[in-house]
């Protein structure tokens, strides 16, 4: 009888470990590796925008830009992992994060992207998306074209916010 309880306990622990591992993969790794699935809405609420100067995780910035760019592109395979609106609030958030990040080649390029977006220029959105997608080690969801309707909406939203 004692042995039976030990086996049940071991099975329960293994199942719990599998559930936690699965949750980790779906929440953290899904953002990094574009693990597939259909388009989802999500946001990163890590709060890194309030970190002290030089202490912002570049990967968080890349994730934010990736989520925003996902909302403006068509993927080759139709798969995207998460989206955020490209609006004044989200652009300003990323710029604040970049203000607190170390200055290097990557963060300079990321700043160029979001500052261009801030001006309503999405003419390079496919390249912008694929740049951050590559940084995240993307395997599915490579951008093939801009979603012209979504781009037009983002431009209109940014114009309204500027007034």
The value of Rg in angstroms is 19 Å
Strand order of the largest sheet: 1-2
Largest sheet properties: 2 strands, antiparallel
Strand content: under 5%
Mind explaining what this structure looks like?
The protein has 6 helices and 2 strands, in the order ααβαααβα. It has 163 residues and is mostly helical. The chain has one domain. 28% of the residues are buried. The model is unreliable at 17-52 (pLDDT under 50).
List the helices and strands and how they pair.
Layout: H1 2-33, H2 58-70, E1 73-75, H3 88-99, H4 105-118, H5 125-135, E2 143-146, H6 148-162
Helix pairs in contact: 2-3, 2-5, 3-4
List descriptors:
single chain, 163 residues, mainly alpha, two-stranded antiparallel sheet, globular
Brief sketch in words of this structure:
The chain has about 160 residues and is mainly alpha-helical. The protein has helices spanning about 1-35, 60-70, 90-100, 105-120, 125-135, 150-160; strands spanning about 75, 145. Helix 2 runs antiparallel to helix 3, helix 2 packs across helix 5 (about 125-135) and helix 3 runs antiparallel to helix 4 (about 105-120).
């Amino acid at each position: 009888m004692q042995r039976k309880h030990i086996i049940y306990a071991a099975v329960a622990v293994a199942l719990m470990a599998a559930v936690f591992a699965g949750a980790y993969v779906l929440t953290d790794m899904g953002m990094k590796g574009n693990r597939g699935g259909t388009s989802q809405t999500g946001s990163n609420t890590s709060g890194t925008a309030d970190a002290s100067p030089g202490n912002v995780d570049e990967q968080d910035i890349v994730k934010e830009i990736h989520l925003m760019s996902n909302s403006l592109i068509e993927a080759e395979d139709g798969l995207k992992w998460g989206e955020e609106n490209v609006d004044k609030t989200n652009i300003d958030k990323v710029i604040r994060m970049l203000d607190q990040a170390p200055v290097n080649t990557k963060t300079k390029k990321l700043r160029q992207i979001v500052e261009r977006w801030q001006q309503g220029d999405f003419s390079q959105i496919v390249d912008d998306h694929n740049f951050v997608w590559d940084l995240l080690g993307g395997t599915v969801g490579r951008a093939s074209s801009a979603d012209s309707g979504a781009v037009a909406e983002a431009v209109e939203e940014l114009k309204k916010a500027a007034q």
